[in-house]
């Protein structure tokens, strides 16, 4: 009887073990189920440090060669495929007006030389640049020139002419081929924008700009991106926030070469996956009307700050996200990036790189820093806190996902990943290199198998891990692989801790 009972117990245990193994989800990657064939890659909001770039700036020339090199070293690890460089005529080349009302332009000013330094870097490293101006010059950061009556709006031919003169200089004289798109007015649907939500004014400006670019012979070098709208609804606007993108596709599709919008979703909408649903619908709509690249031009997470350590910091403006100091922000931003690209966006740009780039309303008040960055390159100089120059946790996930999802990849679908708050993103190059990013935004470990039979995988993959207790870095704080894994039986066995990110890649930049 004892032997029979033991055999019965063994059978039960074996049956339970087999059932447990069979219950592990198996996801498959099909190279033929393509989400994006126009993938550009992710990137950063970049700036030439308007408050610290010259002796005449509000803080003086704090951006020394050493500081610039610190920033460029970090950006070189990220390897952004695209950068959004928003500027302002009266920050750089517009020096006032003569007695006849003609603009005084100086393309060799110290401020322009700072911009050239940034563009030189982008040119050398083949980073596509979206160039633009925050708004018409007299309304933004005009503490010196007092140009209140100089321009009438985004549809003022005088401003359009000024913009095209600048573009002509940058493209034909300075030979910057990296400048691919021009962005007329930041978030034009917002009540903070110089257009104050006036769609017709913005559209007329786009029409004038398109005509002027063509007349100047620049249309083979640069094109217009728009509408750059935010999901915020301005009661004064004819259209709701994201409807600006729909109306751009319906009304002026021939005048823009790419669509773009901004969004600052709540952490809850990211963790629930609602974010991806919203933007999948938007991208499907614009694709159905007039398909072209769609870029998420600013991405950050709004919500209650969770970093109690920095609450009440005297250098922090209300336009900040103190979660950038926290581990969880690295998980949430990776999740947001995965959902963005899976929804159909061809590029995603993080807001932003460095706290030292912008202040509230860009008036140069060091006590009103916009705390959104991956670091503060002027931590010692501005806040007397050298430690603030260190890399923050979300640099880890944004950098590896930007570095290893390259512009020559196609983004393909992952099937049967039905684990709550676990999401994946897969990119494949023509040569067969692959990158797979996985986020687990739940409170539980997740286990599953990736079926790789349809992929032409190389024998080994580098595995990166971002978890609360383990995220390997080198001496500079840059991520390094946790291990190299070998593919066995056409499968990758995944065990991902709660609130963490894993990235597998065979791609070498």
UniProtKB/TrEMBL annotation:
Keywords: Glycosidase, Hydrolase, Signal
Gene3D superfamilies registered for this protein in UniProt: Glycosidases, Golgi alpha-mannosidase II
Domain of life: Bacteria
Regions crossing the membrane: none
Record's keyword annotation contains Transmembrane: no
InterPro entries: GH, Glyco_hydro_5, Glyco_hydro_b
Signal peptide as annotated in the record: 1-20
Glycoside hydrolase family domain boundaries: 181-302
Family per similarity comment: Belongs to the glycosyl hydrolase 5 (cellulase A) family.
This protein's name: Glycoside hydrolase family 5 domain-containing protein
Species name: Flavobacterium chungbukense
